[in-house]
Write a structure and sequence with these properties.
The complex is a heterodimer. By secondary structure, chain A is of the alpha+beta class. Helix content of chain A is 25%, strand content 47%. Chain A is globular, with a radius of gyration of 13 Å. Chain A starts with a helix and ends with a strand. Helix content of chain B is 46%, strand content 13%. Chain B is built from ten helices and seven strands. Chain B starts with a strand and ends in a 6-residue tail after the last helix. The A-B interface holds A 38-39, 41-42, 46-47, 50-51, 53-54, 56-58 and B 198-199, 201-204, 206, 209, 249-254.
Chain lengths: 109, 256
């Protein structure tokens, strides 16, 4: 699942990204506050898809050079409209049967 | 039966609002450039004054609501003159008529005010200086490709103006609120090119997601009619997002 997620992030494929998540998932991103924006708290797979649809097309958001650190963690850079943050994206929990992500937390590295 | 005045009531949200008000049995007055009950160019001082004078002539005992809906999104000077001054000057011009009947005012803003696109320098000039001629002189040479930032600025300033006015007007028995629509289906959006369509689709309307559908003008008309009605008596100084949840999707942390 983490490889599929990395590929989706690289390709800015918001549908593929959302398909990595469980229906009742949570995605928290604590990096935007570093550039004086509100952090992201996204609840549910549909919201993940819609939110990143907007951010990839209009919001200037890019995931840069994502590298799998271990089975739960991606080490990456995130560009928020040109301001780049070094971050760690950690899968905090997933569905045992499907492997779909229940909770992903992105923190400043 | 109440008397509702709607600007830009010949098409889109305005037309649906007029239609709904008529269905409810109210008298409506559509002020538009063409095809209105009163034809006037609200992008000009003369046009606004003519419309205000005509409303005073027709309704000396007052009106129940003023709905400032007329707006454009492409021509920068027109955006400034119609979206902001065409709304604020019309609302202020009929304030005495609204006061006579304890009426209300609704201005049509936009959910783009929450997406960071508005030129806040222009917002400040509109709200604080409000000198139409000087502002028009400043913006006359701007690239028309930046029109969307001026559009968002006028809509931001309009919502802020409504909130600024609401306390004083409320104390005199006149409520004023704003609606902030998301992308609404209109004749213009039906003819979008592929690139424009990509941009519109990237502002998802959660209640319609997957169907590609934009907001239905009826959804806006229902909200406007509610805010203008006595049923919204307790609502004053509010900016009501009617965008199917787009703002909540993109700005979930802003609860106030």
């Amino acid at each position: 699942m983490i490889q599929k997620l990395v590929q989706a992030l690289q390709e800015k494929d918001y549908k593929a990204m959302a398909s990595c998540f469980a229906e009742e998932c949570r995605l928290f991103d604590y990096c935007p506050l570093r550039i004086k924006n509100e952090n992201y708290y996204i609840y549910g797979r549909w919201a993940v898809e819609m939110f990143y649809h907007n951010k990839f097309i209009l919001g200037g958001l890019s995931f840069l050079d994502p590298r799998i650190q271990d089975e739960r963690t991606i080490n990456l850079y995130i560009s928020y409209g040109g301001q780049v943050n070094h971050a760690l994206a950690t899968i905090e929990s997933w569905e045992p049967e499907s492997g779909l992500i229940r909770e992903l937390v992105i923190r400043p590295a | 039966m109440s008397i509702y005045v709607v600007t830009g009531g010949s098409s889109g949200i305005g037309a649906k609002t007029v239609e709904l008000l008529k269905e409810c049995g109210h008298e409506t007055v559509n002020i538009d450039l063409n095809g209105g009950d009163i034809n006037a160019n609200l992008a000009t001082k003369e046009g606004r004054q003519a419309a205000i004078d005509e409303l005073h002539r027709r309704y000396p005992d007052g009106i129940d609501a003023m709905i400032c809906n007329a707006g454009v999104n492409r021509n920068i000077p027109l955006i400034i003159s119609l979206n902001y001054f065409g709304a604020t000057q019309m609302a202020m011009g009929v304030f005495d008529l609204l006061k006579k009947r304890g009426g209300s005012c609704v201005v049509v803003s936009s959910n783009t005010i929450a997406q960071g696109a508005a030129r806040m320098d222009v917002v400040g000039m509109l709200n604080n200086q409000a000198d139409e001629e000087r502002i028009l002189a400043l913006v006359k040479d701007y690239d028309r490709r930046t029109a969307h930032t001026f559009y968002a600025a006028t809509k931001y300033a309009l919502a802020r103006w409504a909130r600024r006015m609401s306390a004083s007007w409320g104390a005199q028995g006149v409520r004023i609120n704003a609606v902030a629509p998301g992308n609404v289906r209109t004749a213009m959006t039906d003819q979008l090119g592929p690139q424009e369509r990509v941009a519109v689709d990237a502002l998802p309307v959660p209640i319609n997601y997957g169907s590609g559908a934009l907001m239905d003008p009826n959804d806006l008309a229902n909200a406007i009619v509610f805010l203008a009605s006595p049923q919204a008596h307790g609502v004053n100084g509010v900016v009501l997002f009617v965008d199917g949840g787009t703002d909540a999707l993109l700005n979930s942390e802003k609860v106030y």
